[in-house]
């Protein structure tokens, strides 16, 4: 895989993982920050800088996945007032029929 | 690996009771389950979010958090770094004889490097404490104890954090002279006033870098320069500054700095004190014991908390510019959103954006009663003044030091924005603030008079 294709696939993986994060603020942060971060990194040309950023990105993606589970287990069961008015986010792996509280 | 286990768990729950899959997983969750039908209020759409009731107030959902100066949520990267040390790598970092101790010590030293890297210090200059309050106490009382025979004077400002002011009062009770410098109406310290206050027997100057109530950024570079020239130690409470604005202890000639974990998306209960080694800052320890942390702070260093603080500092270092730009943009939106729809709004703090940390927006709303406003804004979590003083009915001493009038001081609201605040939350905050202030003003006869052009101050109130 070329570096550019790896970067694109990492970016998509970030957005996919972030979409199901149980906490509203962190979910929004991941979407916003991933977009900003990858947009800025696209300007980089130095291959070693790209490689180290890719490695950092992969580690942070793992963190997102792990913490998504932790927040799902230990997070609040009530939504915040903004989320009550937004369309429901389906946490990954849960049956779509029953929305979690 | 964890994912696979969790997936298996989810599969199992789905097989066991397909219709109740959600409930089966809920059985695993640690959070207290919402009280079912018994005392739940009117259920709202879809997933049936019940009503939260605390202290006699009913909420339809969790409020939006806009109180980042009080504390911040832990960044998931920080929690991720801490969990291994809260599960299987639980050793005491001072145990020298086995793997548990060695790996714990390694984690502590790595964290020390991360913190030092954020402020431009050497790792040997970082001491771990239980928080910025302890760091402030250690800095002030420690320096004063060391110099008790040679020096007699300490300088601080009237807008410092309570722990600094209280430590200074403690010193006064033991024969020290303390000068509490006044600040200008915008909160900035006048350097000429500081210079005039310095004496040959001054041991320490303590000025916080960023104020927690109004967000004013003090001119630490110039203060540090002044102190270095006169051989006076410069201590700064950097709790609200470190990780949010660029801080360099060498550029600003800082000798002692307090760092707080829970203000920079780290854990609560941990902080650090930067103690300069070149030229050496002399300090007497407050905590006696086994001599940990270079003899300056005895007690077992709490590895998970320290690792959390280190991770928070590392993340803050990488994210500083992005966070600052984000917060600046949000502050602009919040301030102009409110001031464009309401009159009689006063900004507490410097108007110059270069002298104020944008994440801290303190506004006073004229002709509105403070308690009613805060109670009405129950769907956003904000604070009026500082959490430390909110227990008493007194208006904030910081606002009083700025010369803000009583009534305006009572109606101050502090909006705290940070890394995780979203545009939608800011929009909601604007809408709620504007609508509540308007609602309260409609009921206010004083407001009616102001609308008619009457000057409130010229009224002669009849004595009954």
TrEMBL record, chain A:
InterPro entries, alphabetically?
Answer: Complex1_LYR_dom, Complex1_LYR_LYRM4
State the protein's name.
Answer: Complex 1 LYR protein domain-containing protein
In Gene Ontology terms, what is a biological process of this protein?
iron-sulfur cluster assembly
Report which superkingdom the organism of origin falls in. Answer: Eukaryota
What is a single Pfam family found in this protein's UniProt entry?
Answer: Complex1_LYR
- Domain (Complex 1 LYR protein): give its ranges: 6-63
TrEMBL record, chain B:
Task: Please give a single GO biological process term from the UniProt record.
Answer: iron-sulfur cluster assembly
The source's superkingdom equals Eukaryota
For this UniProt record, the keywords arranged alphabetically read as follows:
Iron, Iron-sulfur, Metal-binding, Pyridoxal phosphate, Transferase
Xref: InterPro entries: Aminotrans_V_dom, Aminotrans_V_PyrdxlP_BS, Cys_deSase_IscS, Cysteine_dSase, PyrdxlP-dep_Trfase, PyrdxlP-dep_Trfase_major, PyrdxlP-dep_Trfase_small
Q: Where does the record place the Aminotransferase class V domain? A: 65-428
Q: Which GO terms describe its cellular component?
A: cytosol; L-cysteine desulfurase complex; mitochondrion
- Top-level class of the enzyme under EC nomenclature: transferase
Q: Which cofactor does it need?
A: pyridoxal 5'-phosphate
Q: Which stretches of sequence are listed as region Disordered?
A: 33-52
Question: Pfam family example for this protein?
Answer: Aminotran_5
* Entry keyword annotation includes Transferase: yes
The UniProt entry, under Gene3D superfamilies, shows:
Aspartate Aminotransferase, domain 1, Type I PLP-dependent aspartate aminotransferase-like (Major domain)
What PANTHER family is this protein classified in?
Answer: CYSTEINE DESULFURASE, CYSTEINE DESULFURYLASE FAMILY MEMBER
Q: What is this protein called?
A: cysteine desulfurase
Organism equals Chlamydomonas reinhardtii
């Amino acid at each position: 895989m070329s570096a550019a294709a790896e970067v694109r696939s990492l970016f998509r993986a970030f957005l996919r993982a972030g979409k199901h994060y149980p906490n509203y603020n962190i979910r929004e942060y991941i979407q916003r920050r991933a977009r900003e971060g990858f947009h800025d990194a696209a300007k980089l040309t130095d291959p070693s800088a790209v490689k180290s950023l890719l490695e950092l990105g992969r580690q942070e993606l793992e963190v997102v996945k792990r913490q998504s589970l932790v927040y799902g287990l230990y997070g609040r069961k009530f939504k915040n007032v903004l989320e009550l008015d937004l369309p429901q986010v389906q946490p990954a792996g849960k049956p779509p029929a029953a929305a979690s509280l | 690996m964890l994912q696979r286990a969790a997936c298996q768990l989810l599969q199992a729950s789905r097989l066991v009771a397909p219709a109740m899959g959600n409930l089966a997983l809920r059985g695993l969750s640690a959070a207290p389950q919402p009280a079912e039908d018994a005392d739940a209020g009117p259920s709202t759409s879809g997933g049936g979010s019940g009503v939260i009731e605390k202290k006699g107030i009913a909420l339809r959902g969790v409020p939006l958090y806009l109180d980042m100066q009080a504390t911040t949520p832990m960044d998931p990267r920080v929690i991720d770094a801490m969990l291994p040390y809260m599960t299987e790598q639980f050793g005491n970092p001072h145990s020298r004889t086995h793997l548990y101790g060695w790996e714990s010590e390694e984690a502590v030293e790595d964290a020390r490097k991360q913190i030092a890297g954020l402020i431009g210090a050497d790792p040997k200059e970082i001491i771990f404490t239980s928080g910025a309050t302890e760091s402030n106490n250690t800095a002030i009382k420690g320096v004063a104890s060391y110099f008790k025979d040679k020096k007699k004077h300490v300088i601080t400002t009237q807008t410092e954090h309570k722990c600094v002011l209280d430590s200074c009062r403690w010193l006064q009770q033991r024969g020290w002279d303390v000068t509490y410098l006044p600040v200008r109406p915008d909160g900035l310290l006048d350097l000429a006033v500081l210079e005039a206050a310095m004496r040959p027997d001054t041991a320490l100057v303590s000025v916080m870098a960023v104020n927690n109530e109004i967000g004013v950024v003090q001119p630490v570079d110039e203060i540090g320069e002044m102190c270095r020239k006169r051989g006076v130690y410069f201590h700064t409470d950097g709790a609200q500054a470190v990780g949010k604005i660029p801080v360099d202890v060498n550029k600003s000639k800082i000798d002692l700095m307090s760092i707080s974990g829970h203000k920079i998306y780290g854990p609560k209960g941990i902080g650090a004190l930067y103690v300069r080694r070149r030229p050496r800052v002399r300090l007497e320890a407050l905590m006696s014991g086994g001599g940990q942390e270079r003899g300056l702070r005895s007690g077992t260093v709490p590895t998970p908390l320290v690792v959390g603080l280190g991770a928070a500092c590392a993340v803050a270092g990488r994210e500083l510019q992005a966070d600052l730009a984000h917060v600046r943009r949000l502050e602009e939106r919040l301030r102009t959103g409110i001031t464009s729809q309401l009159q009689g709004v006063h900004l507490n703090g410097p108007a110059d954006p270069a002298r104020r940390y944008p994440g801290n927006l303190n506004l006073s709303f004229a002709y509105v009663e403070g308690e009613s406003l805060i109670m009405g804004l129950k769907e956003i979590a904000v604070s009026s003044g500082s959490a430390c003083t909110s227990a008493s009915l007194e208006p904030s001493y910081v606002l009083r030091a700025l010369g803000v009038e009583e009534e305006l001081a009572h109606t101050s609201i502090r909006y705290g924005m940070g890394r995780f605040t979203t545009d939608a939350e800011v929009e909601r905050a604007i809408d709620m603030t504007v609508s509540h202030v308007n609602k309260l003003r409609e009921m206010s006869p004083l407001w009616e008079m102001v609308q008619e052009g009457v000057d409130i101050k010229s009224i002669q109130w009849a004595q009954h």
